[in-house]
């Protein structure tokens, strides 16, 4: 291994039993005890054996595609990931633990405390993927008639993160004294009310838990719209994105890294990690057969439903073997705008029918699919990593645990041989794995 | 052990490093790594060795007694207990896992999902202590100017529990088919929208996790006001209470059990478990010395602050060695009314000064203190258990882990010898430990 060579970051994106919409039908996915802890424990142990920077969970607050096919033919149940992270902290030692929690239907005080709790229990391994909730189905589960429009969601998210960071800082690192003799538990001059009062929130504080081990758990974001990019440049330390081509990924990378200066931040303070969906075979032929097998397992209704959800537009009444119909203008989409654009351009560019399009995106759900032998997979990751398109990748195995095992056993050693991925952990916190600085405390007076 | 003899239920009420306000100064409490998982892991292992029905955590969403003394001299930090439970599920096998979560500042969808997650991860061991939040300090952490008044809080709590139960029932027990061959994941006729719409909440559902292993996690409550008793009679399966004398406890027991019929419930479907604060010595003298040692460790300001919080009335300006001043009428107390009444009657009855009163309640915080040798402790528990005052007890060790070790090593064997506590677990779920039936699903059609 070349010393000092820059190394890629890797996230293990857990979705049980896999990222492919038909994963649950795959012979190498586990569906027995699909909500039991054993599945997650084994996946976490595998990811840690593979020296991944972190485990990552997406989330949502509603069943998707609520019609008959969605419930009948796809996986519509999952544990609450924030709750699950804490259990995974117990069965792992070094790997980071990141989960999604929405700023649209939560309270800053609760999320600040939950992620602080996980950071303490795991000795500094927590990460929070900050998202906004954009589906109507979620609004209806939280006593709202409709979901917030795009601008308001991001505005609320920005203020939400600000409040959470203040709460994490409300106890300075050295506030706890715990001196049994003198009876002094904490230094009250180092415990602060946050007195936040703005458009969305008014929060007095302090939080009722000490500052997290990492100062702040790592802040992750995924939005790629204009507001999303700006929020990320201001507050994110990791961005998960979805790009199909290296040129799109490079443009995004340049764009977001370029915005950092405006907020007084260095380039390396933000890691950009596109999602990749690896289909791995010992030969190219085997990889192609695997892909074909997965595509054939997709039920039609599920495929159309998934595509409709991706572009926030109902395609169920259109002929499945014809191209996409005329779609609304992107301005009128109150959903994930970037995802809409991505799918629409892919359909236009390659003149795909609805069926072909859902077969294409159903797997990786808009993320980049990479297919081939372990060497070919490593080549594709290395290319993006070394050409300004990515600081690392969020790995989305098509089926689990099989697909994660293959990546760890076949691809990770290849990346290690090339000197572009760690042989072992050198740090103990997620910040250390990612090469991110511990944030200063806004309440702390600097002694000169 | 007499077969068939009725046995008491025991909760291990975890508060690190103990229930006494000065516990953290006690030589046998652990304060190193006070937020690390190791402390909790060891306590959970001890409680499970002691065959407790469940571990229990209280909670609150603000630091208490925010002035200098509260922060300076008492323990004002704790992990989020719901998050913590999930980690404890991994290191235990049989013991129940219960935590407090407030209906005042949460959303039913989130809590339904979190407790369902813990129930799945623990194979049926979750319990939820349903509370309302009554402190001004909490309101100010959730963008509210003042907290809800007593009636509205209980009204919201009742509807909250109703929504949560509907969400737990939204997937019938046999909704999941997961047939890889036919491609049928779930039976859509067994997955239900809940379509709840009432005063406080409108929630469409279904939940995005399958029905909990226990049907519903066990519902616990603690309120003892009129509204609290009625809510408990309608919805609770366990009540934690605070009584100083057997006659008060018997009256409460009669009262609440008597209300069950109104809601079509049997007497045994609700377990009443008063809190007890055991000070255990190998001799009576040793127990008294331990008590004295704890009392002397209480700093004055902390004692007065604690008493003030208990009665929702600021006593800091009154002379500490005089009796309680004239207090407002109970009608005007917008806090825990029962606790107010309890403390006020104790002060009046025994003509205690503020100092004496805080020394008395600071330990058990209004709960019953029992002191003595293991045999005397067992006698006091047995007396209440056999005379219609309790179905079991929530044990609140003054300091931890020492006080829990003593209870498990010295008192539990004595209770087992008397045949009034289990020698080992016979069931695997918290419901089974407590002798509670698995609830029917409101959406399930009964086949005749």
UniProtKB/TrEMBL annotation, chains A, B:
Every Luciferase-like domain range: 19-388
Q: Does the keyword Flavoprotein apply?
A: yes
Q: Which Pfam families match?
A: Bac_luciferase
Q: Per UniProt, what is one GO molecular function of this protein? A: oxidoreductase activity, acting on paired donors, with incorporation or reduction of molecular oxygen
From which domain of life does this come? Bacteria
Residues bound to FMN are 59, 100, 150, 154, 224-225
- UniProt keyword annotations, A-Z: Flavoprotein, FMN, Monooxygenase, Oxidoreductase
Q: Does the keyword Oxidoreductase belong to this entry?
A: yes
Under the heading SUPFAM superfamilies, the entry gives: Bacterial luciferase-like (SSF51679)
Gene3D superfamilies listed in its UniProt record? Luciferase-like domain
Q: Which InterPro entries match?
A: Diverse_substr_monoxygenases (IPR051260), Luciferase-like_dom (IPR011251), Luciferase-like_sf (IPR036661), NTA_MOA (IPR016215)
Put simply, this protein is called FMN-dependent oxidoreductase (Nitrilotriacetate monooxygenase family)
